[in-house]
């Protein structure tokens, strides 16, 4: 399956930033959003995480995010000044995920589905019709 991507035609790409503006990015294109319900994402965000992937060669980050490793290869990037969580990355992949809330104008993005649905919080339900995977989505589904 080919990778799908979205482009915000109004701005020629996507931009985003943290709350204080110390960290910002410009992405040429973003893939559809996924909702991640893994315990780490829920701990970092306070709920589940909405994130869209971008190939590493398609994003420019301005400022210096602080990275926190949660495993040998998986890390979250956040602003060291305001604390806004902005990125997720697995060092074994050639893409970066940007948090949905950090995107300035996400009107053209769609939601693909839910990952790590078996770890979702006990206090909410997932829509029955939504695409969901117990863990990560199969290769090619990104």
Give a description of the structure.
This protein is mainly β and 142 residues long. The chain has one domain (14-119): Metal Binding Protein, Guanine Nucleotide Exchange Factor, Chain A (Beta Complex), CATH 2.170.150.70. The protein is 5% helix and 34% strand. It is built from one helix and ten strands. The strands form two sheets. The protein has a seven-stranded mixed β-sheet with strand order 6-7-8-9-4-3-10. Strands 1-2-5 form a three-stranded antiparallel β-sheet, with no helix packed on it. The chain is globular. It starts with 13 loop residues before the first strand and ends in a 27-residue tail after the last strand.
State the main characteristics.
Metal Binding Protein, Guanine Nucleotide Exchange Factor, Chain A, globular, 142 residues, three-stranded antiparallel beta sheet, mainly beta, 1 helix
Q: Secondary-structure blueprint of this entry?
A:
Elements: E1 14-17, E2 24-27, E3 33-36, H1 39-45, E4 49-55, E5 59-62, E6 66-69, E7 74-78, E8 85-90, E9 95-99, E10 111-115
Parallel strand pairs: 3-10
Antiparallel strand pairs: 1-2, 2-5, 3-4, 4-9, 6-7, 7-8, 8-9
Summarize the model shown.
This protein is mostly beta strands. The chain has one helix at residues 39-45; strands spanning 14-17, 24-27, 33-36, 49-55, 59-62, 66-69, 74-78, 85-90, 95-99, 111-115. Strands 6-7-8-9-4-3-10 form a 7-stranded mixed β-sheet. A 3-stranded antiparallel β-sheet has the order 1-2-5, with no helix packed on it.
